[in-house]
Amino acid sequence: MSRSDDDPRPATYYHLARAVFYREYLIFVRYPANAIGGIVVALFFFGVLFYGGQLLAGQALTDSLEGIIVGYFLWTLSIGAYSSVSNDIGSEVQWGTLERHITTPFGFAPVALLKGVAKVIRTFLTSAIVLAVMLVVTGTWLSIDPITVVVVAGLAITSVLGLGFAAGGITVLYKRIGNWLNLLQFGFIVLISAPVLDMPWTRFLPLAHGSALLQRAMVDGVRLWEFGLGDLALLVGVAVGYLLGGYVVFHYATRRARRLGVLGDY
What we know:
This protein has ten helices and no strands. The chain is mainly alpha-helical. The longest helix is centred in the last third of the chain and has 32 residues, at 229-260.
């Protein structure tokens, strides 16, 4: 039996991606106050860090200012990537719309992953504005090769997306654990400033190795193709490993929630 032109066509992942990215675009355009508020808050905290540090540390802060700016830029990206997944899943649980996503032909995990990628792209735009303002305010110059920065920073925060998936899965099971999940955001500061040279094992933690490479790229001007093959392979391996690990945790957490009958409870 042949399909007529009037028959509905099955949706593909292309249609799903287009719908998710268009939705994120509409939210960004129609509610700009929220995006602007995020930029203002990020700059406020940097202002406190910068001017407060000048009063307390003086020259010591000036000597390490480039590294602080790069680290803060990566931290804002990490917060955006992590919260985009964990908070979004938490919101779906509160609104009672999580089961609707579960019953889609794609399943909730691909939808959540695409929504996370869309929010990461938006976070890149807002964090770029924050970075530009930080450079102007402090009078600092950094080497910003767009390809190198996007690839290294993107792979670095991919591991955080995996943590966001794991946190989202725990939220589905235990519901209101926002305070514990928010605590992890401050742990990103420790990971970004991890001493990878003195403690090489920390390179296998999320953000740590990516942060070290991003420092070399933006402070020392190292381009993407100038990094060693081992450094790039480790960066990709950590990103993929934590993303898959978080995805597996989320998958089994939602499956356990369905088995316990608490998926739609709140």
